[in-house]
Amino acid sequence: MWKFKTRSSTRSKNRAIEPQVVVTLAQQRTSLISVIGEVNTPLRFAVPATGAGDRVLDAITRAGGIKGQGYSTWVMLERGGRRATVPFENLVMNAANNIYIQPGDRIYVYQEQQKFIVFGASGAEGTLGSQGEFNFDAWRINLAEGVAKASGLQDARADAANVFLYRREPKEVAKLLGADVSGFAGDLVPVIFQINLSDPGGYFLATRTQMRNGDVIFISNSQSYQLSKFFNFVTTVTQATTGVTSTIIGVPTASAAVHGNTVATPVTGTAGTTVIPVTTATP
User: Fold this and answer.
1) Distance of alpha carbon 159 from alpha carbon 120, whole angstroms
2) Which CATH number goes with the domain that contains 191?
3) Per the database record, which ranges form the SLBB domain (predicted)?
């Protein structure tokens, strides 16, 4: 077989046969990470297409950290048209939530207090109660602390044996609690927990029950207070009836005076009936 050698091959003999070329990418917009919202220095920074090895907290640190308190800070991550939101606490306390960032991610940091609502016989004695919406003002609080934020239970009004906690639980949890979830179409099921604070063991249970954002606490009235409310209602109705009777009695008197008649002073008869003698004036 014939073998031919070209001039170029002869010149390249004994030279490098594996040349290397270095290419530097100045900017790639699809690989930018955005960190905006309640951070000290909102920014966009570039990362390699394979990722920079940074996590969500690292990206927030690049942006100067969060502005407000950690317990009221939430972090939303947008990736590929989908969004997920977690409390800032979850990123700090649970390393599994502090995931790696990827090119094109957007991180939005915002402030929103976790809140709960209290109804019923709560508040200081002699007041209408401390019903309303309350902030956590902490990363987490328990049920006992939630009741304390509403100034506790009113001694003369509250039924300590009937304190209720309303919340929504996942269907799996509701099933474990023995609830029938067949009538609920969603993933969450409304569940009511009852705690007896008249039992010392109930206080330990309340300290172990963690409050969640959107929970509702209801403190029911005692039976004696309900009976007192009934008697107050009866008294109010009786007083109103007495006032109407006095008004009706006064009508003939006023009518006689308008027509120029002499009206005598009302007298109570022996049978307890009010008699109003009216005499006609002489023309």
Assistant:
1) 10
2) 3.10.560.10
3) 32-109
DSSP 89: H
Contact predicate 161/196, CB 8 Å? yes
Closest Cα to residue 155, out of 233, 219, 231, 227?
Answer: 219
Rounded Cα distance between 110 and 71, Å, is: 11
As for how many domains the chain has, the answer is 2
Place of tokens 């991180």: 107
**143 vs 223 pLDDT, higher one:** 143
Q: Of residues 8 and 183, which shows the higher confidence score?
A: 183
The answer, yes or no, to whether residue 251 has pLDDT greater than 80, is no
281: pLDDT strictly greater than 60: no
Alpha helices by DSSP H, listed for the chain, are 7-11, 56-62, 88-93, 143-149, 171-176, 200-208, 223-258
Instruction: Give me the sign of the Cα torsion angle 39, 45, 51, 52.
Output: negative
Of the residues 62, 89, 111, the one at which a domain ends: 111
In our burial notation (b when 16+ CB lie closer than 10 A, e otherwise), range 116-151 reads bbbbbbbbeeeeebebeebebeebebebbbbbebbe
234: Cα within 13 Å, side-chain hemisphere: 6
Residue type, 153: L
Q: How far apart are CA 21 and CA 196, in angstroms?
A: 76
Q: How far is it, in rounded angstroms, from Cα 192 to Cα 204?
A: 19
User: 104: domain range?
Assistant: 29-111
Whole-prediction pTM: 0.63
Q: CA–CA separation, 248 vs 113, rounded Å?
A: 58
